[in-house]
C-alpha cells in the first residue's frame, strides 16, 4: 500500500524527531561514561551508586523512544512497500524528494559520528575497569599470599632470595 509523498514526509519528520532524541540519549551516555571513569578514579562509591540509579532511570525512559522508532519503521515499510529491515536512512534518502534529503543526510552523519565516539568512550571505560580489576586482583593475591606464591628479591650483591614467610610486604632493601 503506497501512500502519498506528504504522508510519507510526515512519518519521516516524526522519525527525525525520534532520531534527535536518540542523539540526545547518546550524548547523555557519553557524559555518563566520562563521569563513571572520573568517579572510579576518585573511588567515590556514593556518587557511583547515584550514577547507576540515574542510568537505570534513563534506560527505562528511553524504551518509549525505541518503541516509537520501531513503530515508525513498520509504518514507513508499509508505505514504501518493503520489509521493515529495508527501512534505513539511506533508503529514505533515495526514496524521498530532494528537499527532504539534506535533513536525513545530516542526521545520518551525526548519528555515525556519535556512534563512533560512543564506541571509543565505551572501549576506554572498559579498559579502565579491566585494569582496575586486574590491579585489585594482583594486590589481593600479594597481600594474602594466595597460592603460596614466592616473592623473588635481589640483594645488593645481585643474589636472589625468596621470601615465603611474609603475608604483606618485605621492607628489607
On the 0 to 100 scale, the average pLDDT is 85
Q: In total, how many beta strands?
A: 2
Radius of gyration from the CA trace? 27 Å
Q: Name the overall outline.
A: elongated
Which H/E pattern describes the elements? HHHHEE
The DSSP helix count reads 4
What percent strand?
under 5%
Name of the CATH class:
Mainly Alpha
Describe this structure in words.
The chain has helices spanning 5-42, 45-80, 89-95, 101-144; strands at residues 151-154, 160-163. It is 72% helix and 5% strand. The protein is elongated and about 90 Å long. The protein has four helices and two strands, in the order ααααββ. It has 173 residues and is mainly alpha-helical. It has one domain (5-145): Up-down Bundle (Methane Monooxygenase Hydroxylase, Chain G, domain 1), CATH 1.20.58. Strands 1-2 form a two-stranded antiparallel ribbon. β1 and β2 (160-163) form a beta hairpin. The termini are far apart. The model has no long low-confidence stretch (mean pLDDT 85). α1 (5-42) packs antiparallel against α2 (45-80), α1 packs parallel to α4 (101-144) and α3 (89-95) packs antiparallel against α4.
Amino acid at each position: 500500500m503506497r501512500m502519498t509523498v506528504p504522508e510519507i514526509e510526515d512519518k519521516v519528520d516524526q522519525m527525525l524527531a525520534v532520531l534527535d532524541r536518540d542523539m540526545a540519549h547518546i550524548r547523555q551516555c557519553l557524559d555518563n561514561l566520562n563521569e563513571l571513569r572520573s568517579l572510579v578514579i576518585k573511588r567515590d562509591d556514593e556518587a557511583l551508586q547515584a550514577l547507576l540509579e540515574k542510568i537505570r532511570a534513563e534506560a527505562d525512559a528511553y524504551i518509549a523512544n525505541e518503541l516509537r522508532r520501531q513503530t515508525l519503521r513498520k509504518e514507513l515499510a508499509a508505505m514504501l512497500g518493503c520489509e521493515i529491515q529495508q527501512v534505513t536512512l539511506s533508503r529514505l534518502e533515495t526514496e524521498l524528494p530532494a528537499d527532504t534529503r539534506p535533513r536525513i543526510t545530516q542526521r545520518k552523519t551525526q548519528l555515525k559520528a556519535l556512534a563512533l565516539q560512543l564506541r571509543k568512550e565505551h572501549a576506554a571505560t572498559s579498559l579502565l575497569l579491566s585494569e582496575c580489576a586486574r590491579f585489585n586482583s594482583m594486590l589481593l593475591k600479594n597481600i594474602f599470599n594466595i597460592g603460596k606464591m614466592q616473592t623473588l628479591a635481589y640483594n645488593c650483591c645481585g643474589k636472589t632470595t625468596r621470601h615465603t614467610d611474609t603475608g604483606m610486604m618485605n621492607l628489607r632493601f
